[in-house]
Structures are given as structure tokens and as C-alpha cells.
Design a protein that fits this description.
Elements lengths: L1 E5 L4 E4 L7 E3 L4 E5 L9 E4 L12 E3 L2 E2 L7 E3 L7 E4 L5 E5 L6 E2 L4 E5 L2 E7 L5 E2 L4 E5 L7 E3 L20 E5 L10 H4 L18 E2 L8 H6 L7 E5 L7 H10 L3 E5 L4 E4 L15 E2 L7 H7 L4 E23 L8 E8 L4 E9 L5 E17 L6 H6 L5 H50 L1
Parallel strand pairs: 7-14, 19-20
Antiparallel strand pairs: 1-4, 1-17, 2-3, 2-5, 5-6, 8-9, 8-16, 9-12, 10-11, 10-13, 13-15, 18-19, 20-21, 21-23, 22-23, 23-26, 24-25, 24-26
Length: 443
């Protein structure tokens, strides 16, 4: 949301209660961003003296916040269907936690949601600022059981504008490009309906629904049976086996948001091996996929992302990995290609439609090195890959060996021919010498 002050040429305004003033001399409108406005300070305006009159009386435009959404509910995503948030309306907007762009909601449901953490709020209007956001987890579930979403209730009273002659008025403007950027900390809410401190830069994992709970041990102890566990990581940190075990026992799915726009959704029912910590950090540099395989994969489409997962081998659970890929077209497909180091070849693991925000979500069961290939249709099998002449490294090695053998054979034949020529020349030379001697004797 942004606010526009109109008819303000020759007017001074203050956003901090009068400590600092801005004099508008060359325009009729001023656009103010949501982040610059304060409910407690409001907006002060007055028209200063022009030499022939005194300063006008000060006007105060009072501001308030809209009430936060209430009675939201969630239908979790499953292996065959995407998630749904119910209880929304046309006065609300939403966004994934790790993105900046708020999306206008139309209708009473949000559908086709990938597993992950979302924020929902009532958008602002005129002198009413947007509500505090409500954190909602769309988890991965084996079923589609309905659960209550995390909600906050903040009451507010609409402010009034005292209109004075020749002073500013307000209108609202919905321009997505001018929505102010916010960090994850600025948008999360705790269970006591208090906004998280925007300057909280804790390096430890934080529980989204209660920012006062930080660190793996505290988060593990706060698990509520049957409720999803929403966690934000500010720095790379392995997920402890103790947390995985506790979540499995409580039947609580785990949704982890990382600071590089990566989200993991772990199904509690799928957790089996909890013998060791799991590092789910995504590494985008120094990826282990050989360059020749990357080049071969480009025959199917464009490379949307290359990444390694820090953990090695199987996870001991089933999870969905949601991450941004190099496309914003919702008609594109993202295909996950696994690099098998044993065969030195690529294998097709999963395909999905890219969402409107440029994110893809893949079903993951083990860690390795991966390519994401963006194409107009899904790559469905290795057989299809072979038809597109994507040779494996083993095939290329065999071809190289065959070429080497042919070269060696040709060289051997050349040597034999050369030796034969030399022998023939030697024999002819000896015969020629004997013939000359006989001629001399006859003379």
C-alpha cells in the first residue's frame, strides 16, 4: 500500500510528530510509503506564511491499522493436491514469507498453494494502514485434514481527517511496484499477537508463531501435537535428530524457511530414520554436476538452477523442496535432474508446473547434486532423454575407447607397411649388388 497526499504545493508536512518537516514547493502530490507512516504519529500539515499572511493552523491526519484476519483455516497439501487457505476475502492480500510482493486476493479461498509459510493481511485504504500479517503454514500431509491457522486479532478505530482550507487530502493508490521491501523478521507474528522486533537479527532458528522461542532445543520443547511447526533459519544450521524424532511422535509436519528463499516441508508421517542431524542447506556455487552433462541437459530447455544439498545420501524422511527457479512464466515446467556419481549420468527425478512467483516444488528423498531444467512440457522418463541424444558419460567413455583402438590399429598397419617396404628395398639392394659382381667376373 502507498498513500498519496494531494493539493500540497506550498505545504509543509511531518511524519514524526513535528520533529522534522518537508516543504513541498514544486508538486501538487506526494506519495508516501507504508513503511514511513506511524499510527502513533499520524501526519501533520500546515501552510507556512507567504509574507502576506501568517502560518495556517496545523492539521493532523490520524492513522489507524485495519483489523488482522480472523478465522482462517488451512487444507494442507498432499502428494496429489496443492494446499488451500479458507476464510479470506477481497479486502485481503497474501504473500510467501520470503518474498516482498503482496498479492491481491479475490474470492473466499486461496488455492493451488505449494507447501510453505504464507502471510495474510487486510490491505489498507485511505488513512487506514494494512493490518498486522497473520502467519499461515501450508504443510505437507498424507491426507487433507482441516486445521486452524495461526491468527491474530488487533482492534483499531478508523481515524478521522480534520479538513482545513488549502491543506492536504489523502487518497490511496494500489501500485505493486511501490510496495516497500520488508524482511522476514518484520512480517512474522508471535502467538501473543505482538509483532516480532524488526531488528531481531538472531542467528538461531526462530519459531514463526512465537518469536520469543529461538534455538533448536526450545523449538523442540514447544511442539504441539498435530500442529505444523513453522521455523525460520537466519543462518545455515543442521536440523537436529531430536527435533525430527519429537515431530514424528507428535504428528507435526515441519516447514523450514531459509534466508535464500528456499523452503523445506517435511511430512511427520514419513520420518523413519532419526539417527543423525540433517543439514538441508542449499549450495548454488561449485556444484558437482560435470560441465558436459550440464551442456547435454540444455537440449531440453534452459537451466533454471544448479545446486548441491550439504547432507549426503538419504534423508530418512520424505520432503518437498520449494525454491525459486529462473523463470516467471506459469506455463513453464521445472524438471529436477539428479546427478548420479556412480554412473556419471543424469536421472529425471520429478517435474512440476512453475507457479506465478517463479517457484517450483519437488518431492525429495535424498541429497545429491541437481539440475533444474525449465521446459514447455515435463520430461517424463529416461527413455525420452535417450531419444533426445543425451549420452551418459559411460557411453562417451566407450566411444572414446573405440576411437582410441581404431587409431592404434591404423598406426600398427602403417608401421607394418613401412617395415615391409624397407625389407623389400633391402632385398632389392642385395640382389642388385650380386648381379653387379657377376657381371664383373664375366668380364
Amino acid at each position: 500500500m502507498i498513500m498519496t497526499l494531494s493539493n500540497v504545493r506550498g505545504v509543509k508536512y511531518s511524519l514524526d510528530g513535528g520533529d522534522n518537516w518537508v516543504f513541498v514547493t514544486d508538486q501538487d502530490k506526494v506519495v508516501l510509503s507504508e513503511s514511513s507512516l506511524s499510527v502513533t504519529k499520524g501526519i501533520k500539515l500546515y501552510r507556512p506564511s507567504d509574507g502576506s499572511s501568517t502560518d495556517s493552523d496545523a492539521q493532523i491526519i490520524t492513522l489507524s491499522k485495519a483489523d488482522a484476519p480472523a478465522a482462517l483455516s488451512v487444507i494442507n497439501a498432499t502428494a496429489s493436491s496443492l494446499g488451500i487457505i479458507n476464510g479470506v476475502n477481497n479486502n485481503m492480500e497474501y504473500k510467501p514469507v520470503n518474498t516482498d510482493k503482496w498479492i491481491e486476493i479475490t474470492g473466499n479461498t486461496l488455492t493451488n498453494l505449494q507447501p510453505g509459510n504464507y502471510l495474510v493481511r487486510v490491505h489498507g485504504r485511505y488513512n487506514i494502514l494494512p493490518s498486522e500479517p497473520v502467519g499461515v503454514a501450508v504443510a505437507l500431509s498424507n491426507g487433507s485434514a482441516k486445521q486452524a491457522a495461526n491468527t491474530t486479532n488487533n482492534s483499531s478505530t478508523a481515524g478521522n481527517v480534520k479538513k482545513e482550507q488549502n491543506t492536504g487530502t489523502t487518497t490511496d493508490t494500489d501500485t505493486e511496484e511501490t510496495v516497500p521491501s520488508t524482511t522476514n523478521d518484520e512480517t512474522k507474528m508471535d502467538s501473543n499477537s505482538d509483532a516480532i522486533d524488526p531488528y531481531n537479527n538472531s542467528s538461531e532458528p526462530v519459531l514463526v508463531t512465537n518469536s520469543k522461542i529461538t534455538g533448536w532445543d526450545a523449538i523442540t520443547q514447544s511442539i504441539t501435537p498435530g500442529e505444523p511447526l513453522l521455523i525460520e533459519l537466519h543462518e545455515d544450521s543442521p536440523v537436529p535428530a531430536t527435533l525430527l524424532s519429537a515431530a514424528k511422535s507428535a504428528g507435526s509436519d515441519i516447514v523450514i524457511g531459509m534466508n535464500n528463499h528456499v523452503q523445506w516441508s517435511i511430512s511427520a508421517a514419513s520420518i523413519e530414520d532419526v539417527s543423525s542431524d540433517i543439514d538441508l542447506t542449499i549450495k548454488d556455487s561449485a556444484v558437482s554436476v560435470p560441465d558436459d552433462l550440464v551442456t547435454a541437459a540444455e537440449e531440453y530447455g534452459t537451466i533454471g538452477r544448479e545446486f548441491d544439498i550439504t547432507h549426503e545420501g538419504g534423508f530418512g524422511f520424505s520432503a518437498y523442496l520449494t525454491l525459486p527457479v529462473n523463470t516467471t512464466s506459469a506455463s513453464d515446467y521445472a524438471n529436477l535432474l539428479y546427478y548420479n556419481p556412480d554412473t556419471n549420468a543424469l536421472e529425471i527425478m520429478d517435474s512440476c508446473k512453475v507457479d506465478d512467483s517463479g517457484y517450483a516444488s519437488f518431492h525429495m528423498q535424498h541429497a545429491s547434486s541437481y539440475l533444474v531444467v525449465i521446459s514447455s512440457a515435463p520430461i517424463t522418463s529416461l527413455k525420452a532423454a535417450e531419444k533426445k541424444d543425451m549420452p551418459s558419460s559411460t557411453t562417451r567413455v566407450k566411444e572414446a575407447d573405440t576411437t582410441t583402438n581404431k587409431t592404434a590399429l591404423i598406426l600398427f598397419v602403417c608401421v607394418v607397411v613401412l617395415i615391409t617396404i624397407l625389407l623389400i628395398n633391402l632385398v632389392l639392394t642385395i640382389i642388385g649388388r650380386k648381379t653387379n659382381r657377376r657381371r664383373k667376373h664375366k668380364k
